[in-house]
Amino acid sequence: MKKIATIQDISCFGKCSLTVALPIISAMGVETAVIPTAVLSTHTGGFTGYTFRDLTADIPEIAGHWKRIGLDFSGIYTGYLGSREQISMVSDFFDDFGNADNFIVVDPAMADHGKLYAGFDEDFVSAMAGLCAKADYIIPNMTEASLLLGIPYSGRHDREYAEKILVEIADLGCRVPILTGVDSGDGREGAVAYDSENSMFYYSYREHIDCCCHGTGDIFASAFTGAVVLGKSLQQALDISVNFTADCIEKTFPERDEMWYGSAFELCIGNLLEYMKQI
Ligand code: PXL
C-alpha cells in the first residue's frame, strides 16, 4: 500500500489542513501518516479567540522515531506551518525522508485574497520560499505566488499572467509549480501547472462558481498528492483535483451561510473516487 506523510496543523473545527487531508487521502486508498504541527480549536480564518497548542518540539521527535523504525513514504505533503522554526524542521524532514523514488508537495498555505494569514510576516514568507525550492510540486494561490516572488499582488488571475508567474516561480527552484484560482478567460476557473523539466504548461478548468469556501486549497492539494502517488500523470492529477474541488464548492454553495467556515467536501468523496477511475 502506498504511504504519504503529511505535516500540518489540526484545526479541531473548521475543516482544513489535517481534518481535510486525512479523510481525502485515506479515501483514495493511500495510507496517511501525520505529523500534527499544532492543535487549534478552529482555523484562523474568520474565527476569533481560538486556542493554539504548539507542537513544534514533537516534529523532530516523531521524525526521529520514524527514521529509527525505517519508515519510508511515496509522497511527502506539507500544508499550513506555524513558524519559521517549523519550516526549518520540515526542511530537515525533506532531507531525511526525500529520495529519488518519492516526491514532495509543498502547499505554501500562508495567504489569500491579497493578505497574509494572521501571525505571518515577511521573514516567514522568505523561509517558505526556501522550503518551496526543495519541493517537486508547489501549489500556491495567486496571493501566495506574489509573496514568494516578492511582487505586489495585482489581483490579476488570467492565464497569460499565470504562465509568467509560474516560470518565475520555477526559477526559485521548484520543479513543478501549480497555480490555483486561474481565470480561463471564458467563464471557467481552475489550475495551471508548469513542468520546468520539459517547459510545458498544463491546464485544467471548470465553470466558475461565485462562491469561495475556506479550505479549498487543502482539498485540492490533498487530492492532487493522492492522485500523483497513485501514478496519475500531471494532467490527470490536475483534472481530478480541479473537478473534485469544484464539486466541493458547488455542493457548499446552497449551504454557504451555514458552511461559511469550510466546505461540504464529505459529500463529494464519491465523486473523487469516480474521477480516479475515469480520468
Ligand atoms: O487552509 C489553510 C489553513 C490551515 N490551517 C490553519 C489555518 C488555515 C487558513 O486560514 O488558519 C490553522
What would your notes on this structure say?
By secondary structure, the protein is α/β, with parallel strands linked by helices. Helices cover 39% and strands 23% of the residues. It contains nine helices and eleven strands. The protein has helices at residues 18-27, 58-68, 84-97, 122-132, 142-149, 159-170, 216-229, 234-252, 269-278; strands at 3-13, 31-42, 52-54, 75-78, 103-106, 111-112, 115-116, 137-138, 176-183, 188-195, 200-207. Strands 3-2-1-4-5-8-9-10-11 form a nine-stranded mixed β-sheet, sandwiched between helices. Strands 6-7 form a two-stranded antiparallel ribbon. A hairpin with a 4-residue loop joins strand 9 (176-183) and strand 10. Helix 3 (84-97) packs parallel to helix 4. The two termini are 21 Å apart. 3-hydroxy-5-(hydroxymethyl)-2-methylisonicotinaldehyde binds at residues 9, 11, 16-17, 40, 43-45, 80, 109, 117, 215, 217-218.
Index terms:
single chain, nine-stranded mixed β-sheet, two-stranded antiparallel sheet, 9 helices
Shape type: globular
Terminal Cα span: 21 Å
Instruction: Give the SSE string.
Output: EHEEHEHEEEHEHHEEEHHH
| Unreliable residue runs | none
Number of helices: 9
Give the SSE layout.
Blueprint: E1 3-13, H1 18-27, E2 31-42, E3 52-54, H2 58-68, E4 75-78, H3 84-97, E5 103-106, E6 111-112, E7 115-116, H4 122-132, E8 137-138, H5 142-149, H6 159-170, E9 176-183, E10 188-195, E11 200-207, H7 216-229, H8 234-252, H9 269-278
Parallel strand pairs: 1-2, 1-4, 4-5, 5-8, 8-9
Antiparallel strand pairs: 2-3, 6-7, 9-10, 10-11
Bound molecules: 3-hydroxy-5-(hydroxymethyl)-2-methylisonicotinaldehyde.
